[in-house]
DNA sequence: GTCCCCATACTCGGATAGCAGGTGTCCGAGTTTCTGGGG
DNA sequence: CCCCAGAAACTCGGACACCTGCTATCCGAGTATGGGGAC
């Protein structure tokens, strides 16, 4: 089990957008060059973030992506959910009674991680001096 | 990102073995029947647990698997590691400096979950009356 | 009655296909900008 | 000098292959059991 590379790209892109605090959109090619990814692939990933309302897309020349309003409150968990989906990490689809004690343990543990990811925002990283 | 089904099978099998507190080994067919899985597939999974020293395998007639000594201290995390591997959930293989601030956040969150999984043992579930 | 041997049945374990989801790529549609000619 | 039209360049977005890793299966090797015959 691993987080997908797409999640990594999404997180780094969000951080990059936040660091370059530009009012103008940033083109995909710039962002892709930073991470050594195909621009078209990164575009596909960013589409998901747009649909979640975290970033806005601008068409045409000098177009690109920029952070949406209220981005300061976007947490790591929000980004991960946008890419990986909101479903639980563990699904016990057996039929042993209404509640599976194992699943309860797994979900409780997962909640611990999510709680931490929910506290951490992209904005937090900027204050601490970061690497792109 | 999801936990593999194999992990689910492993956890349930461990719980089942712990509940049937038998000194005699339990055959794969019995265990597989409980979870509606192919016996050969379950065998493959249990092999990993054997290599980690959590269960012991007995060949021959009336053979099967049984919990190893000291099983009371086996945690969820031990089982998950045995199946999923011990590598981190998140790998940032870029080259932006020696430390990736994003990865640090991810690892810290992952640690929260692992700490919870490390506290939970199979033996804990038995005391609380469980479903197979 | 006791011991030994053999056939049997059951088990484990590694090697082998099938499939799904993530990874990556390509091309078409749409939009803003810039340039150049005409008024 | 100002305005409008057209072309161009750049962008986004959905649709299409590839490939690693999980899921599942099959078959061979090994071992403890149980029965039967000999002593």
TrEMBL record, chains A, B:
InterPro entries given in the database record: Tscrpt_reg_Rrf2, WH-like_DNA-bd_sf, WH_DNA-bd_sf
Task: Please give the Pfam families that the UniProt record associates with this protein.
Answer: Rrf2
Q: Which domain of life is it from?
A: Bacteria
Q: Which NCBIfam families match?
A: rrf2_super (TIGR00738)
- What is the protein named? Rrf2 family transcriptional regulator
Q: Which organism is it from?
A: Metabacillus bambusae
């Amino acid at each position: 089990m691993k987080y997908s590379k797409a999640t990594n790209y999404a997180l780094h892109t969000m951080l990059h957008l936040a660091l370059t605090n530009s009012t103008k959109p940033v083109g995909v090619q710039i962002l892709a060059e930073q991470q050594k990814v195909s621009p078209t692939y990164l575009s596909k990933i960013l589409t998901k973030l747009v649909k979640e309302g975290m970033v806005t897309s601008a068409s045409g020349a000098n177009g690109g992506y920029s952070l949406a309003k209220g981005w300061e409150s976007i947490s790591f968990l929000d980004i991960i959910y946008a890419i990986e989906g909101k479903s639980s990490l563990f699904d016990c689809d057996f039929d042993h009674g209404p509640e599976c004690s194992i699943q309860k343990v797994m979900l409780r543990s997962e909640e611990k991680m999510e709680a931490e990811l929910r506290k951490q925002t992209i904005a937090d990283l900027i204050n601490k001096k970061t690497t792109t």
